[in-house]
Amino acid sequence: MRPVLIAALWLCAAAAVHAEEAFDFNRDCAKWIEQHGYSLDYIVLKTGKRQRGQPKAWRGNVEPRDVQPGDVVIMYIQDRGNSERVAYVEEVRRNADGTAGAVFVTEWNRGKYIDRACFVTDHFGRLSESKPVTVDTIDKVWRPSLPLKGAAAE
User: pTM score, two decimals?
Assistant: First the structure.
């Protein structure tokens, strides 16, 4: 009886892995992609530019400590592994030594998930309130007015 139970559990686990591998974001989330409400869509609205691919593939061209208004910050999404989101820098408050302290950003699609698999929140296509982020939570900074080595912006 025990080998049958083990085999059944293995089959369930294998099916779950296979189902996850079969998920295709571009295909399975097409209805959301077509609505242009993701954080990267907000960046296009604000800057008229975007990098190719999803935010986790976007590159920086400025050190986070040198961030300034008009830049785009690329940050990890809490509890979503290596997935990243992008936000527009509205204001930078400097520390006494001149280094960036609080960075105030605006973005779309930051909120409670309504479709977790497709990264859709209750603020999809809607502006979230400006909020401060600390420099140490910023993975990369992209300044759209500067060249981007090795990856073209669209």
Answer: 0.78
Residue type, 94: R
Q: Where are the domains of the chain?
A: 24-142
Buried b (16+ CB within 10 A) or exposed e, 53-76: ebbbebebbbebeebeeebbbbbb
The token pair at 56 is 């986790």
How does pLDDT run across 1-56, given as a tens digit for each residue?
555 444 444 444 444 444 456 878 778 899 999 999 999 999 999 999 999 988 88
The token pair at 18 is 């296979």
| Residue 66 to residue 60: CA distance in whole angstroms | 12
Alpha-carbon span 62 to 22, nearest angstrom: 36
Tokens of 76: 């990890």
CA 81 remoteness from chain centre: 11
